[in-house]
Every structure is written in structure tokens, then in C-alpha cells.
Design a protein that fits this description.
Shape: flat
Structural class: mainly alpha
Strand content: under 5%
Number of helices: 2
Oligomer: single chain
Order of helices and strands: HH
């Protein structure tokens, strides 16, 4: 399970880096909602 959470953390960092490099990210809301859904499913 630790590797899975580590992978999620790395993916989140990559998305944050893309959002910072791009002045207008194409779909920031989709990414946040997706991670929120994943977190909710993990907390269940």
C-alpha cells in the first residue's frame, strides 16, 4: 500500500508542476475532483 500512496503523491506533484508551468491549465477541476474521488474511495 505504501507504494500506491507514493505513486499518488508523485502524480499529484506532477500535476501541480504542470499547473504552475502552464498559465491556463486545461482541466484543473477534473484533476482535483478525480483525486478527491480516489481519496474518498480509499477512505471507505
Amino acid at each position: 500500500m505504501r507504494k500506491f500512496f507514493l505513486a499518488l503523491f508523485v502524480i499529484a506533484l506532477i500535476i501541480v508542476a504542470i499547473e504552475t508551468f502552464r498559465p491556463q491549465p486545461p482541466f484543473p477541476k477534473v484533476d482535483t475532483s478525480y483525486f478527491a474521488a480516489v481519496a474518498a474511495s480509499l477512505l471507505r
